[in-house]
Amino acid sequence: MEEYKKYVDNQHAPESLIADTLKKVQAEEQRIAETKEKQSGARKRKVSGKRICAIGMTAVAAAAALTVLVQVYPAANELNYQKVEEKSFRENAMLEEDEPEMTLEEYEKQLGMDFEKLIPDGTLIKGEVEGEGGSKVSLYYEVGGSPVEVELSDTEELAPEELMSEASRVEKREVYLGQNLKESRFFAAFDMENVHVYLIASHMEKEDFEEMLEKILKN
Amino acid sequence: MAKTGDYEVDTEEAVRTYADMVYRLACLNTNNKETAEDVFQTVFLKLVQYKESIISEEHLKAWLIRVTINQCKSVATSSWNRKRASYEDAMLMEEPTEQEDFSDVYEAVRELPEKYRQVIHLFYYEQLAVKDIAGILDTKEATVKTWLARGRKLLNEKLKEEYGNGRI
To answer: How many contacts does A have with B, using Cβ atoms within 8 A?
Structure first.
């Protein structure tokens, strides 16, 4: 294999490609930073005056903060995807910044779920309990190299109201689906044993997203 | 349970550090240079989106390898790429290279079935442990060992038959 190593050693990423990639990376980071800044400003404006209670307010906050254009796409496989123009999952994050009162393990027990096994074929990277009194948990998975964020709560609706306009059936369950093709994101909201689930998959092919959903709902 | 650490990805540094690794993997797994460059850029742009979930340098490297392989698979199955590959394949084969002495082995590795090609490259070139390769490819260590053995055997046969050189 020495010959192979020598050959591959001589392959280098062209400088022009690296330079071009760095430019695109900087532009993307700038765009993300600006988006976060806007969101942060919106949150500060919202919390001034009085504290916003997490429970029951998510949908309202998301709706107010967002411009989500909704359009129903009758897909060939009869799943209905809503077109999501903005990053609703970020906007939907609650406004509380208090220390959570519950650990991830405690939250797992409360919901009666095993977070590591929630997505078959997925690897749980990290999880955070959020909201006042730990009203929800955000879990970050890697599924086939794609990031998947899952929010769970047994007390509050998590998905933006706009996503919930028309349900599809996946594995005989009611699932609300959304997509943002520009940013290669797919969204799903559904209930599992009285737990509200809001899932956002980034940079994933549609068929892989649907396959992942089926596996979760079969699980 | 995975925990949140203090590790933070500097994306620009990651591009510089892992540019060759990602590029080599992309070249090995795509039909042409242009597609390899597309994969290269897509991988690092995904990293910008995903970097907050990376928990260590080892995780970053493994993530980049996994995403590069998946991205190569993704473009390989797109209809547009299949059409483009049909006429650009020839260009790649005829592309002059300064390391022609070693291209027989490289081409033989490239022509291996995907699973063997990946493990051969990751084991011999990236010098990753079987356990790490198993983690990256989401399979068992025993499977990686089997693929390595079969890949080596196929490579030997290919080099003997097509290039008159059975050494690996």
So the answer is: 124
HSE of B82 in the Cβ direction (CA atoms, 13 Å)?
5
The reported pLDDT for the residue numbered A183 is 67
Q: In chain A, how many domains are there?
A: 1
Q: Specify whether the CB–CB gap between B120 and B109 falls below 8 A.
A: yes
Mean per-residue pLDDT of chain A? 75
Which residues neighbour A189 within 8 Å (Cβ) at sequence distance 6 or greater?
A158, A159, A163, A164, A175, A176, A196, A197, A198, A199
B34 and B63 both lie in a single domain: yes
Q: Give the gyration radius of chain A's Cα atoms.
A: 20
Phi then psi dihedrals of residue A142, to 5 deg: -120, 125
* Helix, coil or strand: residue A179: strand
Low-confidence ranges of chain A (pLDDT < 50): 46-76, 86-98
Q: How many CB atoms lie within 10 A of CB B129?
A: 12
Tally the domains of chain B: 2
In-domain check, residue B3: no
Chain A hits for B45, Cβ within 8 Å? 24-25, 28
**pLDDT one-digit tens code per residue, B121-130:** 999 999 999 9
**Whether A198 contacts A186, CB under 8 Å:** no
Model ipTM? 0.82
| Among B3, B20, B99, beta carbon nearest to A13 | B20
Q: What is the pLDDT of residue A175?
A: 92
